[in-house]
Design brief:
By secondary structure, this protein is an alpha/beta fold. The protein contains 10 helices and 13 strands. Helix 4 runs antiparallel to helix 5.
Length: about 425
């Protein structure tokens, strides 16, 4: 936020440099490859059907093709399920080291451990589905060490309490959220008054809109309504940050409305300076997520089963699902693009690493794992391009670019990450 003279206002009231943020975004079960990859290369590529939800953000990301996630094929004697190894290799540079551990910590946690000590949360992993207890390597993508996963929040009410209240996120059923909400804003009243006095007119309006959007979310998060019906907020103007009503998001615990509420809370935590690092898992292979709102009847094995159906109907359903999932990624980027930090956006000051578990769904193809890098990394990422690499280009090399943009001196990552990728740095 800016003061009346256009200087960035920090907590202490002085101008400060905006640090970069790093988020990862995971999708399971691969794609219908012919309808996922764009045609053409460089800036003059043609957006594919499945990526159409991102078309309006073309200047904010780069699509990376033919990255080989060779490490996903390691240690099949530990677990020969390609999906489990696909999860384990998402951002770790390796695969499994045992039935309950991976070979290396994940990139988001390496960065958080090095740079995330000055915020309320060192990192904030979030997941719509795929969080089970005890630990299962196929249900986690964020690892602080090879033996320790970082639990992901999948309950919007608990996540709300963590972001705006107690870091534990424990919700007391004997204390209604409405009363809890009132105490939060009563407590913040003097801080809000002080901040209003220090920022410019435009940002006073923005602050009021932001606080109003938080209140609207709180009203929708009453436990008796949300936890039972699994419905998420409606009626919130997306320009203010919260999810708006839609007819194509479905209902239930795995709905897109619930996903978008979790995304909104994670992005809000980043925007408020409560964390700089996090991961978001839309689903895991094991969750059997259904997509009734797309007109797809329930399948015995959900999305996973559909991803292995190579009939024309199965491929069409896979494309519908992937397109719907890309909409949720676009929702995150739209939120970040709409939040100003000085004269730039939150998205400009961030790196968002998106990847599917593997390439073509039916084949468990790790030789062409879809990767999208979004945000500008503070101007360091060359966006608005489709880059096609040589077939043997290691997938893990991209994390060396990310570490470098974050200002970290990391020479290698995992078993195959040895050199930063060419053509993607501005």
């Amino acid at each position: 936020m800016l003061d009346g003279n256009g200087a960035l206002v920090s907590r202490a009231g002085a101008a400060t440099q905006v640090p970069l943020n790093f988020l990862t975004f995971f999708m399971p079960c691969g794609t219908n490859a012919p309808e996922f990859w764009p045609t053409g290369e460089g800036e003059n590529y043609t957006m594919s059907r499945c990526l159409q939800p991102l078309a309006h953000l073309k200047n904010e990301f780069a699509i990376l093709q033919r990255l080989y996630k060779e490490e996903a094929g390691r240690n099949q004697d530990i677990d020969n399920d390609a999906h489990v190894r696909g999860h384990a290799s998402f951002a770790t540079g390796g695969s499994l080291s045992s039935e309950q551990a991976v070979e290396f910590p994940s990139a988001d946690q390496i960065a958080a451990q090095a740079l995330g000590g000055d915020t309320k949360f060192r990192s904030l992993p979030v997941a719509l589905t795929g969080v089970r207890s005890p630990a299962n390597q196929g249900d986690h993508i964020s690892w602080s060490s090879k033996d320790t996963y970082v639990p992901a929040d999948n309950d919007p009410l608990v996540l709300f309490n963590r972001v705006f209240g107690d870091p534990s996120g424990i919700a007391d059923p004997n204390r209604p959220l409405a009363k809890y909400k009132k105490s939060i804003f009563d407590y913040l009243r003097s801080d809000i008054t002080d901040l209003n006095a220090r920022v410019g007119t435009h940002d006073r309006v923005k602050l009021d809109q932001f606080l109003s959007s938080i209140r609207d979310v709180e009203k929708q998060l009453e436990p008796t309504r949300f936890q039972v019906s699994c419905e998420a907020p409606t009626g919130i103007d997306p320009r203010l940050g919260g999810p708006a009503p839609s007819s194509d998001r479905g209902t239930g615990a795995y709905s897109n409305e619930r996903a978008q509420l979790l995304i909104w809370l994670q992005v809000t935590a980043v925007a408020c300076g409560l964390t700089r690092f996090g991961s978001f898992m839309l689903a895991s292979r094991s969750n059997k997520r259904q997509f009734n709102w797309l007109g797809i009847p329930n399948a015995e094995d959900g999305h996973h089963g559909i991803s292995h159906d190579t009939s024309p109907q199965g491929l069409e359903q896979q494309s519908l699902i992937v397109t719907d999932e890309i909409k949720q990624f676009a929702y995150m980027l739209d939120l970040m693009q709409g939040i100003q930090q000085g004269d730039r956006s939150l998205l400009y000051n961030s790196i968002v690493f998106f990847a599917h578990e593997h390439g073509h769904g039916a084949d468990h193809d790790f030789s062409n794992t879809p990767v999208i890098l979004a945000g500008r990394a503070g101007g360091q990422l060359k966006t608005n391009q489709h880059v096609v690499f040589n077939n043997a280009t290691p997938y893990s090399n991209v994390f060396l670019n990310i570490f470098g943009w974050l200002g970290m001196n990391v020479a290698s990552f995992g078993v195959n990450g040895k050199n930063p990728l060419p053509r993607i740095s501005a």
